[in-house]
Write a structure and sequence with these properties.
heterodimer; A: about 400 residues; alpha/beta; Rossmann fold; 7-stranded mixed β-sheet; about 15% strand; globular; B: about 300 residues; mainly alpha; two-stranded antiparallel ribbon; about 70% helix; about 0% strand
């Protein structure tokens, strides 16, 4: 090799090294606050992590954003509001993230958005349904998931078509559970002749039989669930064991998308058969091509079928990435301004961002929803009876009433 | 109304029997060794997982999972005593003054270690153990029971009686009671006090784990499932009188029934507060607990 060739090789190596150093030294850091250890829902935290990791790999493989790779910085909020607040504080002040996302429990969101607001850092809510996250009207907070009053409208509409007049809800004692139960109450209040009450159950509780026993003597037309696992599983099992629901008299109606949790069938058996489900994902619903890509990556990664949390997490991170592209900057104020005006296409469809004050403030509008009925033990969601979906009105003719 | 009350009474007694099984192990350690064991709930959790995994992963019949849970719990209890508790009384005199602090810190650390270890190794997902019997509903008059609850209650009561007899009449049981009364005196009488402590920890772990195994088909098992039995057990041990097995049994049944009726006639929201309220009342009126003896100092 002559001297000129050696010089060219050295220059090329130097340039490659320099480029690699710049890429490694200047990633765009995005904070992910999730539950990685109890007492919060580690199951949800794991799924959110899977969803954002898939998108991070896709974005970095495609050359990053603004020529820089993205780096996810994780903090464990344990599902505890104070820890969520501390996580946000650390991500912003120590890790210097340009945005925060990932939170999946309303109580944590409500605590963390106070910190994000103080520093004016974009905060994208991944799975906090409570209306209160939106009604605060914080300019830096954007919401990817559905919201409680929208769930309530859908559930009330279905109950109306079912002819249910006497309705009881079991809600967990969290911002999500109580908020959901109240929102359903407000929606049902518009329907004449309907009586509704809800019972709050301790999320840390293990035996709910005393709350269920009074329903044996006076069974309602429908029992609604506004609870998350694992206590939700116990309630479903106990409702079945006590012969309260689902029965020919009483519908069991889950309003929180329980059936797509990976551990659902490990924990409930016969009690879930004939249960109606409000949910945000069904394999039969139409989705953009990006969803199939994310779903395939998730299956390869975990050997599980995807659920709504995977797509919500993916959309949360994609939304931030698109905002950086749109703003051509990682300046928080520029990103927030871009987010407000964006028409965003993610795994669940194309969304506009509402600026109307109230429960839809900075909400991705028209999140697709589905209603389906489970008809057998260990049934995959794809085989459940889809009663309602995007572009498909509620079809009660498909509904199966329990025999007794 | 009558049938609801009978239902509530039955449910309260069933839950009380489970509470008793959980609490007896703690009362042995707390009452007899005067050691605060914050990892007691995790003994329960280990038993619940041992029972469930023996059936689901090893393919053992559900019935075989109970002795597995009992043995694993005994092993964890014995190891805890051998590795972590021994410095408290095995000749390390300098540890004496900091006994309480040491026990609290080390068992709290053990609790966190076990929770996070299980979370990482087994995973965060909830799992329901296989039932001992596959009968969903057994109507007993106005009471509706599952086969699992009925069997678990029978086993729980049988184990409680067997434990009480063991402590009262067996040679090891008499040695344990002697150590509880006066460690130095027992030692002078030729009793191996260290061995007695090992037996107490192993028995405590085994009973909590058996309780976990019995409840695994009823209560979903997660890495943090132990917080529930731990809190209940502490209330029961203090309410019944520290070290008193009959006291723990009575307190467990009272707590179970009180929670059951209170949840319906007062509010489910305050269910966990009922135990604490009655605990405060009893401690004001009878500080040594329902069956405890007044402390004596010379």
């Amino acid at each position: 090799m002559n001297q000129a060739a050696i010089s060219r090789l050295l220059v090329a190596c130097g340039a490659a090294l320099a480029a690699a150093t710049v890429l490694a030294a200047e990633p765009i850091r995005i904070g992910i606050s999730i539950t990685q250890s109890p007492p919060g829902s580690v199951v949800q935290g794991t799924q959110v992590k899977d969803g954002v990791e898939i998108v991070k790999d896709m974005v970095n493989k495609a050359g990053g954003v603004l020529g820089r790779p993205i780096e996810l910085v994780y903090e464990d909020d344990q599902g505890i509001p104070e820890k969520g607040r501390a996580a946000a504080e650390k991500l912003i002040t120590v890790d210097k993230v340009v945005a925060i996302t990932g939170a999946h429990q309303s109580s944590v969101c409500l605590a963390a958005i106070e910190v994000a607001k103080r520093y004016n850092i974009p905060y994208v809510n991944t799975n906090c349904w409570a209306d209160a996250v939106r009604t605060k009207g914080y300019a830096n907070v954007f919401s990817a998931p559905i919201y409680s009053s929208r769930v309530a409208e859908s559930v009330a509409e279905t109950l109306g078509k079912l002819g249910a007049k006497n309705i009881v809800a079991f809600a967990e004692n969290t911002d999500y559970g109580i908020g959901q139960a109240k929102a359903i109450g407000a929606a049902l209040a518009k329907m004449p002749g309907v009586t509704y009450r809800y019972e709050t159950l301790d999320r840390a509780g293990k035996d709910f039989t005393p709350a269920i026993l009074p329903l044996r003597a006076n069974p309602p037309d429908a029992v609604l669930m506004a609870m998350l696992p694992p206590p939700a599983y116990t309630v479903i099992n106990e409702l079945y064991e006590q012969g309260v629901a689902p029965t020919a008299k009483t519908w069991l109606y889950d309003t929180s998308g329980l059936a797509d949790y990976p551990d659902f069938w490990q924990n409930v058996k016969q009690g879930a058969v004939d249960m109606l489900n409000f949910a945000l994902y069904h394999p039969a619903m139409k989705q953009p091509p990006l969803a199939a890509e994310v779903a395939e990556a998730y299956k390869q990664r975990t050997k599980n079928n995807p659920n709504r949390l995977i797509f919500q997490a993916a959309d949360s991170l994609l939304f931030i990435v698109d905002a950086i592209k749109e703003a051509k900057s990682t300046d928080p104020a520029a990103m927030i301004a871009a987010m407000e005006k964006m028409k965003f296409t993610g795994t669940r469809g194309t969304f506009t961002i509402s600026s109307t004050p109230g429960p839809t403030y900075h909400q991705m509008m028209d999140v697709p929803t589905v209603t389906y009925q489970i008809t057998a033990v260990n049934q995959p969601i794809g085989q459940t009876t889809l009663l309602e979906g995007p572009g498909m009105p509620l079809d009660l003719a498909k509904l199966k009433r329990p025999a007794k | 109304m009558l049938s609801l009350n009978i239902d509530l009474l039955a449910n309260g007694l069933i839950m009380g029997s489970f509470y008793a099984l959980m609490a007896i192990g703690l009362t042995l350690i707390f009452g007899l060794l005067q050691i605060v064991n914050f990892a007691h709930g995790e003994f329960y959790m280990v038993g619940a997982y041992a029972y469930t995994l023996a059936a689901l992963k090893l393919g053992l019949p559900a019935w075989a999972g109970l002795p597995v849970a009992f043995a694993v719990g005994a092993l964890v209890g014995w190891l805890t005593e051998r590795t972590l508790m021994r410095p408290l009384y095995a000749g390390y005199r300098s540890w004496g003054p900091m006994k309480d602090e040491y026990a609290i810190v080390v068992t709290f650390a053990l609790s966190l270690l076990l929770i996070n270890l299980v979370d990482k190794v087994i995973g965060p997902y909830a799992v329901l153990g296989p039932g001992l019997v596959d009968v969903a509903r057994i109507p007993l008059g106005p009471v509706m029971l599952t086969g699992q609850k009925l069997i678990a209650t029978i086993i729980a009561f049988s184990t409680i009686i067997a434990t009480a007899l063991f402590i009262r009449y067996s040679l090891w049981g008499r040695q344990i009671r002697a150590v509880a009364q006066n460690r130095l005196g027992a030692s002078l009488a030729g009793i191996d006090t260290t061995k007695a402590s090992s037996i107490i920890f192993a028995l405590s772990g085994a009973l909590a784990a058996l309780s976990g195994g019995l409840l695994a088909p009823i209560i979903n098992t997660t890495p943090d499932v132990g917080s529930f039995p731990a809190i209940k057990s502490y209330v029961i041990v203090v309410l019944g009188g520290m070290g008193s097995i009959p006291g723990s049994i009575a307190a467990s049944l009272i707590l179970g029934v009180l929670e059951s009726f209170g949840a319906v006639y007062i509010s489910y929201d305050y269910r966990d507060a009922f135990g604490l309220v009655i605990l405060i009342v009893v401690l004001l009126v009878r500080p040594q607990g329902l069956f405890g003896e007044k402390g004596r100092e010379v």
